[in-house]
UniProtKB/TrEMBL annotation:
Pfam families: DGOK. GO terms for biological process: D-galactonate catabolic process. InterPro entries: DGOK, DGOK_C. This is 2-keto-3-deoxy-galactonokinase. GO terms for molecular function: 2-dehydro-3-deoxygalactonokinase activity. Signal peptide: none annotated. The lineage of its organism: Bacteria, Pseudomonadati, Pseudomonadota, Alphaproteobacteria, Rhodobacterales. Gene3D superfamilies: 2-keto-3-deoxy-galactonokinase, C-terminal domain. It comes from Actibacterium pelagium.
Length: 279
């Protein structure tokens, strides 16, 4: 088979942006990019141009129109039906949903599937930090329950610059904010306000406020998820810097997790979906 017919395209659709990956049949990444498009026609045109052919299969996750599969469920359905998407054939991975507490996934399910394809006997909890962090309880290869948290959304909203950079988790400011909020999560809003006031009164450097903000927010998240991770095997799946921050926070609770690269797990999940549709 020639180069064109062996390449397939994967797309993770996020708010305002689509991340595109050109992948060979073994799941190896050939190239990647990100696109924004004002409408569906422009989106299809951009994806087709990236694919460099109208014959490529397109595997997607995060497309709300595909709907959701209720828990408990395998992270990716055993049967996937291709659809026509302009000149391309699209294989849509549906997200997962839970009614109480209400939660959905838009890409986390694909990363979970990739991780479980490499670790089929894993039973425990997966933490997938992103703009919305997903905590998923895994048993017998299924997602049996989950919780989602808007921690990074909050960190960004609280930053005067519109983006809260990730702090150094080894600083005492991060440690103090993390431990204080884990023990008293009801004081989260007060802790955040106090950190901002302290930064102005003492003219702290921005990294001090970042450490306090992230420490407090992660403390509240870890407090809320304690029934998930306490005494469990835990793996963190994320891009390296954010994953390292969550890993450090969990490690300070005496629970050093497995750390897996989010993009690598995403591509493994896409490859599994493509193979299921091909078989």
């Amino acid at each position: 088979m020639d180069h064109v017919t062996t390449i397939w395209i994967a797309a993770e659709i996020k708010a305002g942006c689509t991340f595109l990956y050109a992948v060979d049949p073994s799941g190896q990444l050939a190239r990647k990019t990100s696109i924004t498009a004002p409408d569906e026609a422009a989106w299809i045109a951009a994806v087709t141009e990236f694919a460099e052919t109208e014959d490529a299969a397109l595997v997607t996750c995060g497309m709300a129109s595909d709907g959701y599969r209720p828990l408990p469920a395998k992270p990716i359905a055993e049967t996937l039906a291709p659809k026509v998407c302009g000149p391309l054939t699209r294989i849509g991975i549906r997200g997962l949903s839970q009614s109480s507490p209400t939660a959905i996934t838009s890409g986390a399910e694909t990363r979970i599937s990739g991780f479980l394809s490499l670790n089929p006997d894993f039973d425990g909890v997966l933490c997938l930090p992103d703009m919305e962090t997903t905590w998923a309880h895994i048993s017998a290869g299924e997602v049996v329950s989950m919780q989602t948290f808007a921690t990074q959304h909050l960190a960004t909203a609280l930053s005067d610059e519109g983006e809260c950079a990730l702090p150094d988790p080894s600083t005492p400011e991060f440690d103090d904010a993390l431990s204080d909020t884990i023990s008293k999560p009801e004081r989260l809003a007060a802790k955040l306000a106090s950190a901002r006031a302290e930064a102005r009164l003492q003219d702290h450097a921005g990294n001090t406020l970042q450490a306090q903000t992230w420490g407090a927010l992660l403390g509240a998240e870890l407090s809320a998820t304690r029934p998930y991770w306490l005494g469990q095997q835990v793996a963190v799946i994320s891009e390296p810097k954010l994953g390292a921050l969550y890993s450090a926070a969990l490690g300070k609770q005496g629970l050093p997790p497995i750390l897996a690269d989010g993009e690598a797990m995403l591509l493994k999940g896409f490859a599994l979906a493509w193979k299921r549709c091909k078989s």
